[in-house]
Predict the structure of RNA helicase.
Amino acid sequence: MAANQQQQLAHDNDSWKKQLNLPTKDTRPQTEDVTATKGNEFEDYFLKRELLMGIFEAGFERPSPIQEESIPIALAGRDILARAKNGTGKTAAFLIPTLEKVNVKKNTVQALLLVPTRELALQTAQVCKTLGKHMGVQVMVTTGGTTLKDDIMRLSETVHIIVGTPGRILDLAGKGVANFSACTTFVMDEADKLLSPEFTPIVEQLLTYFPKERQVMLYSATFPMIVKTFKDKHMVKPYEINLMDELTLRGVTQYYAFVEERQKVHCLNTLFSKLQINQSIIFCNSTNRVELLAKKITELGYSCFYSHAKMLQSHRNRVFHDFRNGVCRNLVCSDLLTRGIDIQAVNVVINFDFPKNAETYLHRIGRSGRFGHLGLAINLITYEDRFNLYKIEQELGTEIQAIPPVIDTRLYVAPSSLDDQQQRQQIDHQEQQRLIHQKQQLQQQMHQQHQPQYQQQMMPQQHYPQQQIHPNHQQIQQHHQQRPQQYQRR
Ligand SMILES: Nc1ncnc2c1ncn2[C@@H]1O[C@H](COP(=O)(O)OP(=O)(O)OP(=O)(O)O)[C@@H](O)[C@H]1O
Ligand SMILES: [Mg+2]
């Protein structure tokens, strides 16, 4: 082929890129959790052009580490069990190959994406629609708490991909409304949650409606041992991906504040006045406490929404939608919103009640610091929580430090939020890396400087000597590098 012909072809091949409607570039610094890639490009995977268009228009420039590992294997049709940190792009890691394999000319359900909560189903379906925007793919979301009749009507039309929660999907399959006999892709996001005792029987029953030749893909940031039984029983030689040599996110700084139960609200008030919160999520351990706290926060004069599983679905949806759109700065919730929820504006997570186990802790604090960005996690710790704090630190191989009198905003506020638009545009890659490095140094310095003067300014009163918080502080250091059995690389 003549050189000018080749040039013309390359030009034609690339001309579609010029038509793309790209979003404003996100210039916030990012950690290695998402930047340590092999250097793949989305175009390396020979995806349909319409899908590539959706990917680029979603603002994704190149695949994240989990996407690099997962996309080619999933495209090859193999079962996958993948583990990667919170907010590093697992959703697109399974959505991109799923969308690539869908044949939009066929009027059948070809993929099921199973998630544990209704809010996550709505979010995942939305991402699926965004990525598949130019493909003409029909995505349906279905969860409990909505009218079954609407689902039946919807399923009488074309549906290629269903996103939903287990109970409703099983209901639809059992009634013969949803036909999964040609559905060859079965994805479980937050798979360990879906394989907890409350869900496992439903998931197993649901699988009986699927063809024998199917691809099963499991994704989560946490994979305790319970997953093994399912793996052995329902997966064929799964390709295992584990990108979690360390467990916590590099961009999230974690602190604890030691308080009495009755001081918690006062403490929260102090935090509100001192922190630079872009948006925050505040976790409580019961629905009752969610409502009580939300009331208190409002009385203190701060704006806040709340959400928990006992609320009406329509109300839950409204809260989720409005909080995501920045209508309100703070959201108080139960563990309903612990997993998968992706709101990039959240830079602070507060455990008003400390969680019971390491998995919940990890997922909760992972609501900030999305896609390698900076975030802050603050834990209010009572005397009763102290052993649990120690246990979780051990299990996660992380050290949660005592809250210093002043928290440097550079640890959790992106420079773009501090500076004006022009400065934001000037931050180049080197600058970003310098900022991340600076953050790590700051964390170390603050720990060394402030540890003895335990939370003087931030906290109302100090009632217990610091040593009581950890049964053995030195032991924590020793355990720092160790991994408990359940988190070991498989
Ligand atoms: N390749 C990419 N380039 C830029 N941004 C991306 C890319 N992939 C994902 N993101 C963004 O990263 C954020 C986090 O992605 P996602 O919700 O998939 O994380 P996750 O790994 O599923 O986290 P979690 O464990 O909390 O569920 C989203 O806002 C998403 O739009
Ligand atoms: Mg997710």
Notes: Residues 20-242 form a domain with the Rossmann fold fold (CATH 3.40.50.300). The CA atoms of residues 312 and 346 lie 24 Å apart. DSSP finds 20 helices and 14 strands in the chain.
